[in-house]
Design a protein that fits this description.
Distance between the termini: 25 Å
Strand content: 35-45%
Structural class: mainly beta
Helix content: 10-25%
Oligomer: single chain
Order of helices and strands: HHEEEEEEEEEEEH
Radius of gyration: 19 Å
Strand order of the largest sheet: 5-6-7-8-9-10-11
Shape: globular
Length: 233
């Protein structure tokens, strides 16, 4: 049993390491995308950077002007058809205007995980949507290669006086064999945080323990976010 638990732990750590791998784009790649979009009126068909494909799209009003904006998760194309592993993915935000065109707003090079062919959902993307001015970006790190590990990270962003701000974050780390694990939910507007765990030290299911803490509200702006840092328990 001890050996079995150790193997499961090793698999879990391996998957967590893969799941938390954010975009591998270097600064030159990022600058190339920004320079291609900056200060240009863009049609909806022109929002995908050269060398990338669209993974998922959401529309809604992000800057509270009554006009739909666009959030995209895009994935770098594989150099070869057989090379589908560890492809960088980035988040792109565009603001719509009255003419029906879009203006580049923000790039999120460290806001999502890299694509992995073993993810159950394409690119690891769960839900991506804009509702009532809030952008929700959900990753799903469940894998289909026999591992018991599963999890994910849900970010919630909203335009505030301080800037485009992280207002909520939920992180989940589960083991499917026991249906147990750990979760963390943080409200950055109030400072309230809730941690829940029903996983024992040997991977067994235990009585659920809920811990509530109150922190000083923290302002995390879009440019300060790093998936590796925030989406890990």
């Amino acid at each position: 049993m001890k050996i079995f638990s150790t193997v499961l732990l090793g698999i879990s750590l391996l998957v967590s390491s893969t799941a938390q791998d954010r975009s591998g784009l270097n600064s030159a790649d990022i600058d190339k995308i920004v320079s291609a979009f900056k200060d240009k009126k863009l049609a909806a068909k022109d929002l995908i950077p050269v060398g990338f494909i669209k993974v998922k799209e959401a529309r809604g009003d992000l800057n509270q002007d009554g006009i739909d904006d666009v959030a995209l998760i895009v994935q770098q194309k594989a150099v070869q058809d057989s090379d589908q592993s560890d492809l960088p993915q980035v988040v792109l935000l565009f603001l719509g205007d009255k003419s029906g065109n879009f203006n580049f707003w923000k790039i999120g090079p460290h806001h999502f995980l890299n694509s992995n062919p073993n993810f159950i959902f394409e690119g690891g993307v769960g839900d991506l949507k804009i509702e009532k001015g809030v952008l929700m970006i959900e990753s799903q790190t469940s894998v289909s290669m026999g591992s018991w590990a599963a999890g994910g990270c849900t970010q919630k962003w909203r335009s505030e006086k301080s800037g485009f701000r992280l207002i909520g974050l939920s992180v989940v780390d589960m083991m499917r064999n026991c249906g147990c694990g750990d979760t963390s939910d943080t409200n950055y507007l109030t400072g309230d945080a809730i941690s829940t765990s029903d996983r024992g030290p040997g991977g067994e299911r235990t009585k659920k323990k809920i811990t509530r803490t109150k922190r000083t509200p923290e302002v995390i702006l879009w440019d300060d976010f790093d998936y590796d840092k925030f989406c890990t328990l």
